[in-house]
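Aerotolerance regulator BatD structure dump, as promised
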Amino acid sequence: MKRFLLLLLLGAFPLFAQGPKFYLSQTRADLGDAVFIILETEGGAQVRLIEKEFNGQGIKAVYWGTEENTTIVNFKVYRKKLIKYRLTVSTPGRFSVPEIEVEVDGQKIESGMMALEISPRSSTANKSSGFFSNRYFFSEETEGPEDGDLKVLFRTNKDQVWVGEPILGFFTLYYRNAIRPYIDRDFSSSIEFPYFRSEALSGINLLIPEQVIYEGLEFETAVYNKETFILTPLKKGEYSLGSTVFHLEGRQQSFFHMRSIKTIPSKIFVKDLPSPSPSEFKGAVGNFKIGLEEYPKAAFLGEPFQFKLTISGNGNLSSIKDPLLSVCDPVCYPEITFLQTRQQRDFRELGPGEFGFYLNHSYHYSVLPKKEGIWKPEDLKFTFFNPGSGRYESASLRFPGLEIGPPRPKQKIETEDTTGSKGGSSVLVSILLSSIFIGAAAFIVVTLRKKYRAEAVLKRLDLWIGSKRGFVLKHSVMTKGLPEEEASLLAGWKSDTVPLTETYKSLGPSSKANLIRISSWLSDKLKEEESE
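structure tokens r here:
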């Protein structure tokens, strides 16, 4: 398969709208077609729904969900948030769309007056006019396009990769002799990604050339944007990726009954990493740089201090758990303790015609100085395999010398012995101290009880989630009845390497409360299902 340039667009939607903006997905439609009124705002905006349903004269708007879109145009990245309300009517006619109110960053935004025209759905196919070719219109008696005119291909942005090198994969519809049909994947049929780790993404819209020549014939194309995948090869060899089943059904002007077709997999060749690898190599594949942050200027004997290492770039860092202590055999820094990893990633343009995740991982450490003087670890050499150059490369980090001073004197609390009335005052002090201790003890008991209950709920949810991530996790919890917004939050909080109990500690008060509420609801739901 030839390489091609991926352009990430939002189709006909406005790209550079200033501030929040409402618009209709279409102003004219046939009765029964899906029509939406959409609020488009910046990806980082805080949106609160005022109502989930608005009624008009013979028309109703019902909240349909929120989508995050990443758009790359001319190598610039834009992020949009789309809040959708579906419009439903029972009869054809011209309707005034109900005015929608949504709160964006604390301010109310109104949709204003909009009109929608609904035409009756014809029971027979339309006759061809002079402006359209007869090939686009079929009567109910015709079978529609031939099977060879409809194909679904799985495509990747590369046809040769190295072990551990992430690639982008997606499904594309190829069709001819028809108007673009409806397409959806059969979710009862699994997708085959042999020897690849896969992660489903949402909110990524892809667009490839509208016409292609395939097997000597011209086809029109449409990307299936509901599912986009990041795929990481685990073993060398030649593989076929993306085998599954799709359902296709014709639109009104070129109707045909639903058909189920198997996808045409993508052939990909995976190369093994060069051997022998350097002793410092721990599995990082990509192009990275390493940095040092929050490093103190001074420290004191017996008092712990903290710092963090950052590794940023594009590629695969899933095997890197501890870049500092993992290179020591035996442990070469006995005074250093690894605390935790925090992972950040951002889907963006990585190079001309290449898109993927930009990673920024931070590794947190604590140090307990054992003696006075200059504390200076050995220079760190972080080694990775760079697919671009086809060889192993290294990024070095030099620790600055840190002056460890003598122990700081402990503060002493001096009490003065007052003369005079000791009897009454000592009794009063005892009562006050007793009240304080009892109140503190009660507070500690309540706090610990909440903490242990939260940890138990989060651990139970972690066990149920297992290996589910991203879109798969979101879809699983939505099948349990969790709203889409809360399902998206949970999918965003769940990391590949950090358990929910650790993620909980890093969240703010509001997010902590939301995570516990969602986890408790799911835990109760799972208990109900187990008891049935």
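Confidence is low (pLDDT under 50) at residues 1-17, 123-141, 413-421.
lmk if u need the other ones
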